[in-house]
Prior knowledge:
Oligomer: single chain
Shape: globular
Strand order of the largest sheet: 1-2
Number of helices: 13
Structural class: mainly alpha
Distance between the termini: 54 Å
Radius of gyration: 25 Å
Number of strands: 2
Amino acid sequence: TCLLLSNKISKITTIPYGYVAPFMLMIIFFAALQATRSLEDLVLLISIGALGTLFKYFDWPRPALLIGFVLAETIETYYYQAVQFYSWDMLERPGVLMLIFLMLASILLSIFFKKRNIKKDKEKGIVKEDTNPNHVYTFITGELLFVWLLMAFALYALFNSIPHQFLGGIFPIVISSILLIFGVLLSFQLVSKKKQKDVLATELTYNGELTTEWKETWSNFLILPIFLFGVWILGFLPALIIMFLGVIRTKMNAPWWKIMLTTVIGVGFLFFVSQIMSLHLPEGLIADFIFKA
């Protein structure tokens, strides 16, 4: 069935972004609300989204962030059990030694193959194109500030974990310490005149002004906190209607009949699903005030 429908499904990618984005955001927000129907879920969603946006802008690997976020609770639980049952002798167990060996091997092999490819390119006379020819060294960069922000969070977690009992604080202490170590190493590279150009993925400013890419990134991201504010004041469905109207109008400049039709289909579908699932969506301060009055 999937193979037969793949040709039709692939045509979804031809739909302009301005029409797809409201439906994607609607599904994401609706899924985030299913567990507790609380605005705190949306706040966490937008916070993680902002962090992921920064990861993307600075060309950091986002899969690692996602895997760590999803598996953190499970890893913490099993780490507690391992420390409680075996103490630090767990590091001598065959399974742990094998995992450490595989991690180190993957890191060393990636470095080895990278250097080998660079050496082969030099032997063949292949000159790597300079991706940032207009780079001007500056001590403080946006990526450095982002690293320091993460290090500040790690320091807070570290000092907050130290007063706890051994089992209660060991996991955040270890993770915070690792983050601080790699943060220091990356900071030295980012402030180095020799290495900054190679390490720095992108810049926040150019000729004293914010780059166009930075402005576009966060102008698009502003949709999320604005929607959250709308949910808090007006309620989920009214804020969703406004988001549909605003996004499609600003991104596509479509005629109003098409905007209204798309909005009715999207919001009507969500309302239908919420009624079937007996989900109570947030109503907002205005609705609470009216009904309480």
